Amino acid sequence: MTKVHLLGANRSYDRSVQTVSVNQVVMLEGYNYDSYVVYEVSRNEWGITYHLINLQTHEFHTSDLIRPLSEKFGIGIYYDNTNPKFLDPLETAVLLTEAKEKKAEAERKAEEEREEYERIAKIGAERLRPLIPTDAKAVIIGTLRVNECDSYTDYYDYSIGRTVILGFSKHTRNLFSEMRKCAANFEETAYLAEYNADYEHRENYSMGDGMYLGEHKYSGWTIEKEPIYDLEKFIERYAHTAGNEANLCIKAPQPDSDTAEQPTATADLSMFNLEIVEYSEKAIVVFGDTKPIKNVLKDLNGLFRANLTYKGERRAGWIYSKKQETKVREALATCIHV
Fold first, then answer.
1. What is the DSSP annotation of 27-88?
2. Is the distance from CB of 15 to CB of 46 less than 8 angstroms?
3. Of 281, 279, 298, nearest to 290 (Cα)?
4. 163-180, pLDDT tens digit by residue?
């Protein structure tokens, strides 16, 4: 069937009837008002297809319906039926050559990008596989949401600027306490390790984002839990993310507290070379030889993380809320001069 009916315009058009010819200039009305030249007209059982080249961008386009400008209604491609414009056949030929060259270059770059993506993904898969615990049933993911909202058009959405893997879980329950612990594994999400009821989002409804930890819905870092139903599909999905080692912020196994070395009253604490640094806007970290005073730091409700990133380096340390800084300094002062 080659006939179409435009309800709003209350007009019918037969797509089997040719309206413009090769070398004729047409225009897109009601959107960006670009101009095109027809370089080929083809026909099949569904009607006529007009093959176009954008006069500004030299990109290929097609249209199956080109209407007269005198009957303009809504967005569409039109031809001037009063004063039609044509290009010289040589001009059209030059544009066609340039359009083909541009398309070939775009395809070449796309192929290079695809090959580079696959190369990084292969490295990431090899790096990620041994890090997944055999009993892992879910993964804790951090994503940086980039605001793409436009209140003027009532459009609300976001894109993902970066993804990091913060840890694995032995269960699939969505626990904000677990998300907060994993948040401390990455410098840029460390502020989410501090309890804040406003950061806990429960959008368990149609079109909702599920349960996630974050300051804002449409911008900034958010943390959520994702079940691992199929290990190979999980690796395939996050292989490219793991291709950048900086995106793997997974906590290293901590020593068993029953067998860990305990601090003694006679220990020479002045040799531990501890330092307290501002880790983020809302967190501080104690770096240094903390093992002999592990229990002291633990009693201060600190979170030990073996792979924190500080000044471009991976270091082990104890992370605290900035609100605890005075308490931490006072407690350590009784053991060592910081």
1. EEESSS--EEEEEEEEEETTEEEEEEEETTT--EEEES--EEGGG--SSEEEE-SSS--B--
2. yes
3. 298
4. 999 999 999 999 999 999
